[in-house]
């Protein structure tokens, strides 16, 4: 799974992107020397330039807390629908907090025309979610269940948010170092930590419905913030689109690792230096053992196991002007994207998600 390359050589457009997601030991950035930090920053920079994704191991968020978050997620989604709806996601996408039931959201990719979006929503994503954010976010206050319905849930999620936010700010420092910017420059642009912690549940479903396209877990899309952390369970099914061949390749969970990817806003900010790569969730692969036990035909029509994942989405402070970062200019100083604020871009993307 590891992708080995010289961190002293900047990737060029002629380089072939790796066919697997690079794996980086982040402990060298957290605890290493200045030289270690620079080396890891270059590895992450190269991964984002070539693939847009990287696995970080030894990333500093305790595995015990990650495991506990999955336990809380399972407990939440196991609640009766009527109870989960006591923390309802408001209509539309401007206040992205609370519980969304099956079929409410439809992830789209660069589709903003209302008629096209409505047509795509005829096959909504077969998943449910719960969103929370920074307790100090006055623009999007959190929407929680009454404490007596799931005691301890809110307290844990607020603490886990801080763990993930701390990791985001550390990765942003690594990216700033990779561009020879002041280490805090990108982190400072996220000073309000207006991030989003999401719990996702993909219920069990016949594999045949996913293979036929009658149902979708999450269709092909890119994220629209700056960075995303993704903690996965052991079910699998996540695929990313190879930047050159456009084939989809598996991005399976790695024990103890977190998958990190670039979002569209960061791609704009870096003038396209870092890739915002399209990805999707499909039917998980059928294991060799399952095929031997069931046979090929029955294995393909079996029920997919339920899948849980925990993405953590970061975006810059709303008033941050997103324009080409120093050192990311193209030939002759070319800038590929017009300047806009982080808020303007996020609102445009969110409007396409919800009816």
From TrEMBL:
The keyword Oxidoreductase applies. Signal peptide: none annotated. Keywords: Iron, Metal-binding, Oxidoreductase. Residues 193-316 form the Fe2OG dioxygenase domain. InterPro entries: DIOX_N (IPR026992), IPNS-like_FE2OG_OXY (IPR044861), IPNS-like_sf (IPR027443), Iron_ascorbate_oxido_reductase (IPR050231), Oxoglu/Fe-dep_dioxygenase_dom (IPR005123). It comes from the Eukaryota. Pfam families: 2OG-FeII_Oxy, DIOX_N. Belongs to the iron/ascorbate-dependent oxidoreductase family. This is Fe2OG dioxygenase domain-containing protein. It comes from Coniosporium apollinis.
């Amino acid at each position: 799974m590891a992708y080995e390359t010289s961190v002293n050589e900047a990737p060029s457009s002629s380089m072939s992107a790796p066919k697997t997601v690079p794996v980086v030991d982040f402990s060298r950035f957290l605890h290493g020397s200045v030289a270690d930090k620079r080396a890891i920053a270059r590895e992450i920079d190269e991964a984002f330039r070539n693939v847009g994704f990287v696995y970080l191991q030894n990333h500093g968020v305790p595995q015990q807390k990650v495991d506990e978050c999955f336990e809380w997620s399972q407990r939440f989604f196991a609640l009766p629908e009527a109870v989960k709806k006591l923390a309802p996601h408001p209509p539309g996408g401007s206040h992205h907090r609370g519980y969304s039931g099956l079929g409410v959201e439809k992830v789209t990719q660069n589709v903003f025309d209302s008629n096209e979006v409505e047509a795509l929503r005829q096959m909504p994503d077969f998943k449910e979610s719960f969103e929370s954010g920074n307790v100090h976010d006055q623009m999007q206050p959190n929407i929680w269940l009454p404490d007596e319905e799931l005691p301890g849930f809110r307290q844990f999620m607020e603490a886990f948010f801080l763990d993930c936010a701390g990791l985001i700010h550390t990765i942003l420092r690594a990216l700033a170092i990779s561009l020879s910017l002041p280490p805090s420059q990108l982190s400072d642009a996220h000073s309000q930590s207006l991030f989003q912690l999401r719990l996702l549940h993909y219920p069990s479903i016949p594999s045949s419905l996913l293979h036929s396209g009658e149902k979708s877990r999450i269709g092909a899309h890119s994220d629209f913030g700056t960075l995303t952390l993704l903690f996965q369970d052991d079910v699998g099914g996540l695929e990313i689109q190879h930047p050159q061949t456009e084939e989809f390749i598996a991005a399976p969970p790695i024990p103890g690792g977190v998958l990190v990817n670039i979002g569209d806003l960061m791609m704009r900010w870096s003038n396209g230096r870092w890739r915002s790569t399209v990805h999707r969730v499909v039917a998980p692969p059928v294991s060799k053992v399952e095929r031997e036990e069931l046979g090929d035909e029955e294995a393909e029509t079996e029920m997919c196991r339920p899948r849980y994942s925990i993405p953590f989405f970061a975006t810059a402070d709303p008033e941050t002007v997103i324009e080409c970062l120093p050192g990311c200019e193209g030939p002759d100083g070319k800038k590929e994207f017009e300047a806009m604020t982080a808020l303007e871009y996020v609102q445009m993307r969110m409007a396409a998600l919800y009816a």
